[in-house]
Write a structure and sequence with these properties.
alpha+beta, about 325 residues, Ubiquitin Conjugating Enzyme, 21 strands, single chain, 3 domains
């Protein structure tokens, strides 16, 4: 006979206590729903009497308004009853015994090889083998069951997923797996099965379900899709591109995609579009060094649209003034 593991016994006791609180919560919720149902039935009974009076006295307008309110309560009633029945059904399961929970922890040891019991933090942890999905290496993960969260299963997962050899998404370091963000698992369709396994004390099944989610890629609901896992995000539009396909702007020190990168039409140097300015005259893009101001009107434009530091408009005005002065001078001489 295998020696009794004291850590496993203490953990089993903690889990049983939390599952008892979870069951108590469900009974309290059943009470609340039944109270809502009874309140609605009282309202319906009162509404029925008022409707009888309205019909008897031929107050058809009042009857019409009243039936609208009654209809709303009647529509809500089946949903509330269904919720109550579902909770009653799920809470019928007896609490697992300490022996059952101890055996589940023993089975967990057999399935994963090593189980870590942190009784101070009240966490039971196992580790996965390194995981690779569709050619993307993600490393191994620690699956931690937070015992105190078992009393609040309706609020979310009791599992915490930690990357032991992090290979996070290039665009978000908190996403260490397509279905894990900030150590929270999005289990998708498996969520209900995981909660049911925990609620009935099938601890090993719950851990295996979580591992299965980690070893499977659902392209319909990832935090970051695998085809965008490795790469660099364009600083401007956010589009994910492979590093070798990026363009580096020395002016602002960021990487960009081809759509957000261009060149200066004055000096041919490459820059991102944010570091280039569109010339108001010709409409082409220029770097700061290739932009200047007209010495006459002080309007900023590219150096290609300036002649001797003067824009074409001012140049024409200056030529027109010179011609006018020339004509006036000839007239005075004549």
């Amino acid at each position: 006979m295998a020696p009794i593991n004291q850590q496993m016994i203490k953990s089993a006791g903690m889990i049983q206590a939390q599952l008892g609180l979870w069951q108590e919560h469900r009974w309290r919720e059943v009470q609340r729903l039944i109270h809502v149902i009874c309140t609605n039935l009282d309202s319906l009974q009162t509404g029925r009497r008022y409707l009888e009076q309205c019909t008897h006295r031929r107050w058809y307008g009042a009857a019409l308004r009243l039936t609208g309110r009654l209809e709303s309560k009647l529509r809500d009633l089946p949903y509330t009853v269904e919720q109550a029945l579902h909770l009653i059904s799920s809470a019928k399961e007896p609490l697992p015994s300490l022996r059952q929970l101890y055996e589940e922890l023993s089975q967990l040891q057999s399935e994963f090889g090593q189980v870590t019991y942190d009784l101070q933090e009240r966490i039971i942890s196992v580790s996965t083998d390194p995981i690779e999905l569709e050619g993307v290496f993600l490393g191994d993960f620690e699956i931690g069951l937070e015992i105190d969260q078992l009393a609040q299963l309706q609020r979310g997962s009791a599992f915490r997923i930690s990357a032991l050899d992090p290979h996070p998404a290039a665009t978000n370091e908190s996403v260490t797996h397509p279905h894990v963000s900030e150590e929270c698992l999005c289990a998708g369709d498996a969520h209900v099965a995981i909660v049911q396994a925990l609620a009935t004390g099938r601890l090993c099944d719950a851990f295996l379900l979580v591992r299965s989610v980690l070893e499977t890629y659902n392209p319909l609901s990832p935090y970051v899709s695998l085809d965008q896992w490795d790469g660099v995000a364009c600083y401007d539009c956010g589009y994910i591109i492979h590093e070798e396909d990026t363009y580096y702007c020395e002016c602002c020190d960021h990487h960009f995609c081809g759509e957000c990168f261009s060149y200066c039409h004055g000096c041919d140097a490459s820059y991102c579009r944010g570091c280039l300015t569109s010339c108001p005259v010709c409409g082409e893009l220029f770097c700061e060094a290739c932009m200047s101001s007209c010495s006459e009107c002080d309007e900023t434009m590219c150096i290609l649209c300036l002649e001797d530091g003067v824009c074409s408009s001012c140049k024409e005005e200056m030529e027109a003034d010179d011609e006018k002065e020339s004509i006036e001078s000839e007239s005075q001489v004549a």
